[in-house]
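Lecture 7 notes: from sequence to structure.
We start with the chain below.
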Amino acid sequence: MKKENYGAPLERGVIEEITDGKYRVASITRDGIKSLPIPSIAKDTLSVGDKVLFYVFEDGDGLIIFRI
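Predicted structure tokens for the same chain:
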């Protein structure tokens, strides 16, 4: 039976860059995975170097859930 994939897995990552209120995040869970600039629904103020929980789809789009 073929396994179907839905959505994107949650990842632990670190904010590498902030541009126009969006964040580029590099995964610390999987090597070579980086997001496009994505928005955040985290209530905290985020800075470069902060560790976050986020998801990213295959096209690089995604969302930051919260700071860890």
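Points to note: The CA atoms of residues 7 and 57 lie 7 Å apart. The longest strand covers residues 10-19.
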